[in-house]
Amino acid sequence: xRAIRCSTPSLIESKEYAMNIFRxxxxxxxxxxxxxxxxxxxxxxxxxxxxAPNGKPKRSAKAAKAEVAERLSLDAAIAKxxxxxxxxxxxxxxxxxxxxxRRQAGARQNPEVSFSKENFAAGPAYKVLSPxxxxxxxxxxxxxxxxxxxxxxxxxxxxxxxxxDHQAAALDLIRDVTVAYAEAVAAEQNVRLAAEQKxxxxxxxxSVSTRVNAAAAPLIQKTRSDVERHAAAVALETxxxxxxxxxxxxxxxxxEGAGGFTLDPEAFYTIDEPxxxxxxxxLKAGPDLRRQASLQxxxxxxxxxxxxxxIPDPRIGAGLTRIPSANGQALLVGVSLPIPVLNGNxxxxxxxxxxxxxxxxxxxxxELQLGSELTRASRQQENAYLQATTLKHEIxxxxxxxxxxxxxxxxxxxxxxxxVLDAQRSLFDVKKQHISASxxxxxxxxxxxxxxxxxxxxxxxxxxxxxx
Length: 468
Description:
Number of helices: 13
CATH class: Mainly Alpha
Largest sheet: 4 strands, antiparallel
Number of strands: 6
CATH superfamily: Outer membrane efflux proteins (OEP)
Strand content: 5-15%
Shape: elongated
CATH architecture: Up-down Bundle
Radius of gyration: 43 Å
């Protein structure tokens, strides 16, 4: 009976305590509601949605940064590089210098004016025997044998070679930008893949930890999973650093200090079946073989110039002789011609003839080398295309399915952890191979397009091609 009396007041006290707790929570909820209503009205001065003076909301810092980091396609990158890369400035200066040399090659020799005074400060007796004379003359060296036309031909070919060098440098820049762009996108995709691998390693680690904690798997599996998790984190940091290096190199080619842009990964995975170009026809369109032909023509023009230099040039002059003492004057006419006895320019002719032979052999060697490079680049492009398409459509789906089945089977206790680990490694190895094959495809295609001058229309559009 005493226990019953004690329990009744306890029940009443419990009800009162519950009512007090309810009132306390009710007041807290009301206060929190009022606070939530008041918070939006007291915004800091640096809030992202603060209205601007014109009444429109200001853009956030993230939005402004996103606008600054423009999306840069490959074509836009090539156009920007051609417009502002410092690499082409030296070749533009070389073209200008060759144009000045061409202008100077057609210039003739300047005439010479002479004046002489005879018997100057002579004695009276000598002046009686030979009165003083003032001689005024003008002479002109006349170049014969085709020297001027030969010099102009040499300078013409020099201007053509400088222009072709400029064109080749622009094509080299397009190739380098294409390669750097592909490497930067590949590095970006490797960062994405490493982040995905790290996230997946975290999930696998949680799954393994659950089984280990439930005594359904040995502790060694958790240790292995933890090692894989940390290795994935290290791989992610390495991929980020390589991505930064690739972006900085691309920015350098574009003539910019920093890479304030984002790339287009869709075009990276869009690959077309390559068309193997005819080696001879493809190379003829490029500036390399045309440059060799111009070098041969220039060597022949130099030989003609040296042969013309072996012919002596006459100097024709005319003048006026004035005798003050006799108050008379007379006309003078003269001509002089070197006698090619000691110097017949035979050594320069021999050197020029050897240069012609060397230019012909160099042209043949360059043609064979370019043909070999084009064949190799074409085969590399074809191999990369086959590898990338096979990985994308056949191997990658199978690897994804194998990993999903291995992970599901491990969680159900049907497969050991090593099966999951092998399937995970195989999946990401296939993805890395796909990225590498796509990058190799674009690099090989850039080499083929460089050798066949497939990007000449872009040069003409950018105003970088001066050769018809």
